[in-house]
Amino acid sequence: MIAAPPETRYATPFAVLGIVTDGAVVTGVRYLPRHTATRPPHDRAAERACREVERYLADPAYVFRLPYRLQGTSFQQRVWREIEKLFPIKTITYGNLAQRIGSAARAVGGACGANPVPLFVPCHRVLAAGGLLGGFMGGKDDFPLSVKRWLLRHEGLIHTTH
Hints:
Number of helices: 5
CATH architecture of the largest domain: Orthogonal Bundle
Number of domains: 2
Strand order of the largest sheet: 1-2-3
Mean pLDDT: 90
Helix content: 25-40%
CATH topology of the largest domain: Arc Repressor Mutant, subunit A
CATH superfamily of the largest domain: Winged helix-like DNA-binding domain superfamily/Winged helix DNA-binding domain
Shape: globular
Number of strands: 5
Structural class: alpha+beta
Strand content: 5-15%
Distance between the termini: 44 Å
CATH class of the largest domain: Mainly Alpha
């Protein structure tokens, strides 16, 4: 049995971030409920990720500069590269992003859901055409949508508390 890589768990106002690194780059980020126990950075890459998250929390226009690895299919990689272009702070709909790359909105949504480093590749900025939020983190329950809402409010992209 292969042991899971160590995970830093960093508390933020919207979630605890589960940050996985390979010692040099961030390889994964998970949004965990805020009551999840924290764990200090386990290496320099995780420490850097935490410092950059702090900078983002202080300045929502902060552009992440930390190295990360995007592992996925060639299609997923195309979607993630388009999402990386949403700087300065911008949003796009699933359908518009799909048009850019010659695909379908559902396929783009699937790639967003498979994003290994959310926040750093800001898939929360991809919105549904019929409503601001749509799905996020594979579901429509309260926790994932509260994370997306918090991030979009922090970035000044929405002004509602719903």
